[in-house]
Amino acid sequence: MLRNRTIAFTGTAVLALALTFGAGITAANASTTTSEPALTPDQEASLRSNMTAVGISPAMRDRLIDKLESGQALDSMTGATPTSESTEDLGTVTRTISVYPDGSIRTEDIENPTVATPAGTLGGVHVLESISGCTTSGGWHNGCTVKIADLVSSAWFVIDYMPSSANAAQVRDMRQKTCANAIGSCSVSGSIKRANQSSAGPAWAEMSYTAHAGPITDSGAMGIRVSGTKVTLY
């Protein structure tokens, strides 16, 4: 999910738990075990909550927790090929769901825009309906949240973007760059790499992250590309 990732191990026996966004963990490192308890009760509760939220059954939750406790990375952490992928319109967001051979899941969300409609006047001043999140105005999709999440962690940012049937797509004002890690700390930074679609490529914004989970430091990147009317997450 997050690509260009680098994982550094600062201990001799580690559990492969970190910001889990796709390819990059090597099998040798991911399967390393530890004699110490792998998860605290709070960490396990947070992971189980994440699994419940994406519809993983109780029995499968137990198996995935056991896998992590044994020091093995989930398939969604190792760049394994998904067994299935689907896209759902959840109303407020469009979600792509990837299911992996061991039952782990990865999601990619992009907020759906809502047309801002007039709500009337206040004190003689024309006002708009109060709408939180992504809205459409003048061809722009404004204040749209882009989020990528796994069972362990998530990262997101807010951006404005404008698809274009004339191949003149744009992105602007990347903000609210944030991450969350159920088992450790994380930090993010990001910027617009190409504001305007051109012969060099699509309009493009990218956010990088660094996450810490015990002896593991994990880093990588996620982003949005807009080319013509096509919007792609990575």
Q: Could you walk me through the main structural features you see in this protein, from its secondary elements to its overall organization?
A:
By secondary structure, the chain is mainly beta. Helix content is 14%, strand content 47%. A hairpin with a 3-residue loop joins strand 9 and strand 10. The longest helix is centred in the N-terminal third of the chain and has 13 residues, at 41-53.
What is the secondary structure topology, with strand pairs?
Blueprint: E1 3-9, H1 27-30, H2 41-53, H3 58-69, H4 75-78, E2 84-89, E3 93-99, E4 105-111, E5 114-115, E6 118-122, E7 125-128, E8 135-137, E9 140-149, E10 153-162, E11 170-181, E12 185-194, E13 203-213, E14 216-227, E15 230-233
Parallel strand pairs: 5-8
Antiparallel strand pairs: 1-14, 2-3, 3-4, 4-9, 6-7, 8-9, 9-10, 10-11, 12-13, 13-14, 14-15
Q: How many β-strand stretches?
A: 15
Strand content: over 45%
| Helix residue percentage | 10-25%
Low-confidence stretches: 1-37, 118-131
The largest sheet, given as strand count, sense and whether it forms a barrel, is: 8 strands, mixed
Q: What is the CA-CA span between the terminal residues? A: 6 Å
Class computed from helices, strands and strand pairing: mainly beta
